[in-house]
Amino acid sequence: MRTPLAQLRPVHVVGVGLHPYQRPSGTPYTQLGVHSVRAALTDAGLRWSDVESAYTGTAVTSMALSRLMYRHLGASGIPMVQVENASASGSSAFRQACMEVAAGLCDVAIAVGVDKPLNVTDPQRAAGLQNLVGDRVAPPTHFALLAARYMHDYGATPEQLAAVAVKNSRNGALNPNAQRREPRTIEEVLAPPQISGTLTQLQCCPIGEGAAAVIVASDDAIARLGLDRTRAVRVLSSAARSETVYDLENFDAALTRETTEQALAEAGVEATDLDVVELHDAFTVEELLYVEAMGLCKPGRAATALEDGEFEIGGRVAVSPSGGLLSMGHPIGPTGVGQVAEVTAQLRGEAGERQHAGARVGLTHMVGLGAVCVVHVLRKD
Known about the structure:
Elements: E1 12-22, H1 29-44, E2 53-57, H2 65-70, E3 80-83, H3 89-102, E4 108-115, H4 123-126, H5 139-154, H6 158-172, H7 186-190, E5 194-196, E6 199-200, E7 209-217, H8 219-224, E8 233-242, H9 251-267, E9 276-278, H10 284-293, H11 302-307, E10 318-319, H12 324-327, H13 335-348, E11 361-368, E12 372-379
Parallel strand pairs: 2-3, 2-4, 9-10, 9-11
Antiparallel strand pairs: 1-7, 1-8, 4-7, 5-6, 8-12, 11-12
Helix pairs in contact: 3-13, 5-10, 6-10, 9-10
């Protein structure tokens, strides 16, 4: 029988840092990662020697990159593990760091996400699927089909799907770490090129490079190291699942529903308690599908709720105030860690122009190819 995180030692986010997400460049991944780690250490008021364990979420860069990156911070001898879980790599690394602190195996752990598109492989082709026969569908086509189904089932329009990218572009324009920092209109979002079906380029997330780091600590470490407890954010729950067989239900949404229900139940909160949500919006239709699956609105209601401003910063619940994957960007390894950094900033009241007033409870959500799903619930006490 599994033991929920909330029943173990309390785990707190005490430091966050990012390297801005950007188009692929000549910047070494070591520079990206070390920048984010040093920012997180400064934010927490810690030294590298205070960190007792490190998990690195990475998907498309290199084998054994952790040691080459962390050596620039000092050879402290700490255990380090790389975590690859597709788009959920960073979320999974954060989960591992939380579990290690919660279990009492260490007092301070760091989760770092870092990636550069250097070693991209096609897992379906590697598994022996050579073409579009045999259920192999490229992600843009998969989500274009889901968009068509959503519009057919609920009467949503292409303009309502594009409104997701418009909202998130406004948020991303306020985020100095975002890859896309230009606010867009409906007309701009709907303009060619078409990627698949009704999905245009601005309705698909950019995949570039970047890094994010989050430090978690126990109550004992906060007291022993003299950290600022008023800035600590509690990690209430960590849930991870993989897909099963669903009866006439889209597996992305069904898996999101199951994992979110588990995370909320273990955290002891309801969907209506959430103030801030960072979710996997690699394509516009995903935000609509996932807010419904999470219980933030009824099925078929997401497009209307979006139009009514319910998911805006300052609305009923701020969805993707960072800009989401659509504007913040999706460098893969860093994405889930960066979501935790954004929610932490929101719950601390430190998000600047993106601040959602009164934010106290937040949720992060990532789906990984395969499919896997990782959801965390955080609260500022």
